[in-house]
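I wish you would study the pair of lines that follows with an eye to the fold:

===
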Amino acid sequence: MKSQDTPFEGGPMDGRVLPVMLGPTGHPPKTYRIPVPDPDGGPATMLVYRRVPRGHSRRLGLIQGWKYQYDPDDTSGGRLRWPWSKPATPPAAPPSGKPDEANG
């Protein structure tokens, strides 16, 4: 598989460049998670970085590369979100199936 040297911005990895494996489309993953072990033996802390465009070309506005930006408020929880998935909160109760007496 191919890899690409990708810069990291913000957070503890600021200024570092790491080789990141590219997917089948030739792009790095949208999120990059780095587990940091706890020195006291507790649960590991997860650093989350989001993929953002590095720059755009002048004439066509094409993306010229990718970089990772630190995301301290990660709310995705590491799960994939599919468009057909159920929402996290239950919807409001639907109206009753009885016809309205004033209309009918």
Summary: The mean pLDDT is 83. DSSP finds no helices and five strands in the chain. The beta strands are 3-9, 17-21, 31-36, 45-53, 66-70. Residues 3-70 form one domain.
